[in-house]
Structure formats: structure tokens, C-alpha cells
Amino acid sequence: MLTTALFFMLTGYVLAQDYCQNLSQNCGASPGWPFQSMCDTVDYVRPNCPEFCGDCTCATDPRGPCLNGGIRGGNPANWGPNTCDCNCVGNWAGEFCEVCTLTCANGGQVDPATCVCVCPTGYYGDDCSETCKNTDPKCGASPGWPLTDMCTTDYVEEACQEFCGKCSCADDPRGPCLNGGNRGGNPANWGDNTCNCNCPGYWAGDFCETCTLHCFNGGQLDANTCTCTCPAGWDGEDCSDVCQDSNINCGANPGWPSPDMCSIDYVAENCHAFCSICTPANVVIGDCTDADSGLPYTVGQMWAKHDPIRQVTMICTCMAANSYTCVDA
């Protein structure tokens, strides 16, 4: 009697476990039998797809519920004895979705309760493998998407994470830029270059650490500020310009008669000599003309030019009227 009862108990368990099965991988699949309406219109669908057609349910599977958001049934990839296997979400896996398979990069730490990476500053993404970036050159660009108001459009927000403020280049793991450089906010830098340093003036390099300025005509380079101190008679960022005023109103009345007026930006811009931005001196005008560019230079003046044949930069010096020499830089 006991043996008979035990037999029926075990048989009932097996039947309960085996009963709710789709017998074909076509159940709910496309191509296949994607619509439940086919359960009533195509005679062979219902006998082969009892779970898909609702004749049984995986909710009563004797193995019990799945964990961590997993569900049983409804997956065409699971059929036959696997019909009611757990369908796990995210990076959960295992028979009951009890195993977190997520690995965090760049020092990120897995929260075992949620199977989510807690990323260190400057890293983003499900596994902390991403840095802040815009994935489209139109972010912040015109023509393109120039205004942050456009971030209300889903595809703009998705493509322009840095531009839309979803992440910040201030957290870039490479650290800060030097010499007044800053990261982010430059439409020309996008993709993996989104957070590259934007260097001011003649600073260059990964961290704006390299001064690329060359001082001509005896000018002295201050490597700390990347600026030239020009000798008397010369002017400009690289001392290649003659020190002179560029407007007849400098020191004139009517005009700009007083040096006090040099505090006005357009006066200072036009009156370098008058405003003592440079020191005037007698510079002999020799009328050297560069054969390639056609630009005029004065005796003693130096300039840089590119040799397109040899692909080198040369430094040229005006020696006398209609005479200049060039040497490789």
C-alpha cells in the first residue's frame, strides 16, 4: 500500500514537472508560430505548444520561483524539458538566477545583492569600462545639435552624454590639464577623445604640458608661461612683427591723444607702440618678399615656412633687401 502511494506521488511529480512543455522550438518564435491566435486557427499548434497557448503555466513549476527578477516560461529558446527554465535578467545566471556573472573593470566593485558595478570616479557603464564621451560629432556643434535644450530628444541625450551633462570630463581618470587647459566642451573632440585636453595658446600635449611657441628676431621664450619677450623694435606673440601703431589716431588729437586711453581695448589693440605694449626702435626695412607666400619681411626679421617637397619646417631670415636665407628648423 505504501509502495503504491509512493509510486503515485513520484509519478505525479514527474508529470507535473514534465507536463507544461512546448514540444517545438517554433512556439512563439518568428519565423515559426509567433502569434497566440494561431493556437485556435492552426490545428497542430496547440498540441505542440501547451505553455505558449496557455493550456498550462510555468508559474506552478515545482522547482519554485526564480530569483533576482527572473521568470519562468515565455521564451521560445527554451522548449521541451527546458520550457520552464528560468529566464534571467541582466548579468544574473544559474538555475534560479542566483549567480552574478558580472565583472567590473578599472577597480569597480560588484554589489552582490544587486549584481551592479559601483564604479570609481571617472568610469561609467555596466562594467565600469566606459569613460565620459559623446559618440557623435554633432554634439554641441552647429550644424548639429548646438543647444543643450536639444537634449530633451532621446537620441541626442543618448549620443551626447558629456554635452547633455549625464557625465563629466572633470572626473576624467587621467587627471587635470595643465597651463589653463580644460577637458570637455569641445565638439571637435568626440568618441574616445571627448575628454582630451583643450589647450590654450601655444600649449600642446596630452596635458597641455608642451610649449610649441618659437620666438623670432632675438625674442626670449619664457617656458613657464609660453610667451615671448621681444627686443626693441619687435612685436607680436612670436616677435615676428615690427613694433608700430596700426592706426593714425594713436596719439593724435582729434583721435586718442592720451596714454590714459590705452585702457580702452580697441585703442590698445591698434596702438602697440603708443601704449608701450612694445618698444619702438629703428628697424631697417629691407623689403624681403617670401617667394612662396609673397609676404613682406624686414631686414633681420625671421619667419617659419614649410617645405612641401621635403616635408620639413624651415626658419628664414631677411638678410638684406631682396635677400633672405632659410635653414631647417
TrEMBL record:
Residues 57-98, 99-129, 168-209, 210-240 form the EGF-like domain. InterPro entries: EGF (IPR000742). The keyword Chaperone does not apply. Residues 1-16 form the signal peptide. The keyword Membrane does not apply. Keywords: Signal. This is Multiple epidermal growth factor-like domains protein 11. It comes from Branchiostoma belcheri. The gene is LOC109481144.
